[in-house]
Amino acid sequence: xxxxxxxxxxxxxxxxxxxxxxxxxxxxxxxxxxxxxxxxxxxxxxxxxxxxxxxxxxxxxxxxxxxxxxxxxxxxxxxxxxxxxxxxxxxxxxxxxxxxxxxxxxxxxxxxxxxxxxxxxxxxxxxxxxxxxxxxxxxxxxxxxxxxxxxxxxxxxxxxxxxxxxxxxxxxxxxxxxxxxxxxxxxxxxxxxxx
Length: 195
Prior knowledge:
Layout: H1 6-12, H2 23-26, H3 30-35, H4 37-41, E1 50-54, H5 60-68, E2 74-79, H6 82-92, E3 100-105, E4 118-124, H7 133-143, E5 144-155, H8 161-173, E6 177-183, E7 187-193
Parallel strand pairs: 1-2, 1-4, 2-3, 4-5
Antiparallel strand pairs: 5-7, 6-7
């Protein structure tokens, strides 16, 4: 088997997105047992944090983030699909924690956020769907304050090990330092810090 090159990796990234019609499947109760969201998010999220969730999709992780940041915290839920943001709002309505949730539509190939002091960026099941990977990562790193942290997770079924290794390299090339890696039943992940 040939080794994946940088060009191969960049070509594979950003080629598909989960359509909003599949959002309800992302909210299935069994997902909690498989992904254990509180455990994964607790690696980086603290009360009072400002957290940017890139690719919030159906709002599955957003809900947990709003509880974890507490009344002094803030969650900025970002997606490129307006219909997904609508699904997230509907799902979270009445289930949110005390943390403020701001919804943001990313458009025209840019995140469009004027922020450089986020405590945490959450990038879960998103990087393999992001178009313009290098620009996306540069903007992602710019959101974080110095010593801010990024939680990165990908599903094993969609991201093979060689592509995941390239995603790690691309995050490091964007200016982040890998602190740890982990695996779960269906996923792989890493925690990064911004120097």
